[in-house]
Specification:
globular; three-stranded antiparallel beta sheet; about 40% helix; single chain; alpha/beta; 10 strands; Rossmann fold
Length: about 280
């Protein structure tokens, strides 16, 4: 398929497909960054050799199984354990000691993808002696990635890189103590999964569902337009008590949002804020 064919979808067609998806499935992509969304749709057309918008539209709307594949392709699921070790070092030294003052700790990973960062947090909490009094809520719009996250297993080939990240963020033990190798997979400890709740949640449409001491949503908002970013940051603010923490990705900010004054900066470089008294 040539380059002209894979870029045939135009802005009007993106809007039409977005409208059809919302009416058929209830997923609202209207406030996603259109350039990014369009790029990912074109990639789907290339990967699945779909020659025209009309065929793509029909396939997405009439074939629910293909729609599930489409969702997995267009929602970005790039993650790794202890991604950006400097961020986890700050969590370990500056945030977790403050969380230790609570009898029950609730943490929300919003847009958790396949769960690597959720298990990373569980390891930090275990090493701080806090795992048994923590509940980790992990949500994503994509049911398929949630199922992968709940499986407790990741490709064994990734463990070398993850071990380096773990060491660089100040890991206290041997990283291999936290998983068992089975048939090319690294299967993590059952005690981690027992403290996790995986559930679908749509940041565009759904409301707050609890109060959390820490919310992490890293490298998700960059795919939303400014209005939707503001809406989601307000959702996070509503979900945090006084002195609750919010952590975003290294290219994301709350400075423009309508609730920016609710927060104080804890670590500017690693994008961590705390809700003011």
């Amino acid at each position: 398929m040539n380059n002209e064919a894979i870029n045939i979808i135009n802005d009007n067609e993106v809007e039409l497909l977005t409208d059809h998806i919302f009416k058929r499935y209830g997923y609202d992509f209207s406030d996603y960054s259109q350039a990014s969304f369009k790029r990912r749709i074109n990639r789907v057309m290339q990967n699945f050799k779909i020659p025209s918008f009309a065929e793509l539209d029909h396939k997405v709307i009439e074939n629910e199984q293909f729609f599930n594949v489409f969702i997995e392709e267009v929602t970005v699921n790039v993650t790794e354990m202890f991604r950006d070790p400097a961020f986890y070092k700050v969590l370990r030294k500056e945030v977790i000691p403050q969380l230790s003052t609570y009898p029950l700790i609730r943490i929300w990973h919003a847009g958790c993808s396949t769960g690597e960062e959720v298990y990373s947090m569980a390891i930090l909490l275990k090493e701080a002696g806090l795992l048994e009094r923590t509940l980790l809520y992990a949500t994503d719009i994509n049911q398929q990635v949630l199922e992968k996250a709940a499986s407790m297993s990741f490709p064994l080939d990734n463990m070398k890189e993850y071990t380096e990240n773990y060491i660089n963020c100040g890991g206290l033990f041997d990283f291999s103590d936290y998983y068992v190798a089975q048939y090319g997979k690294a299967v993590f400890l059952e005690e981690f999964r027992n403290r996790m709740v995986f559930s679908p949640h749509n940041l565009v449409l759904d409301q707050s569902f609890n109060e959390f001491n820490l919310i992490l949503c890293r490298n998700v908002l960059i795919y939303f337009n400014r209005d939707l970013q503001n809406k989601v940051i307000k959702l996070f603010s509503d979900s945090l008590p006084v002195l609750g923490y919010l952590a975003l990705g290294n290219k994301e900010s709350i400075s423009f949002s309508s609730v920016a004054d609710n927060f104080e900066t804890i670590n500017k470089q690693e994008r961590i804020w705390r809700k003011k008294k």
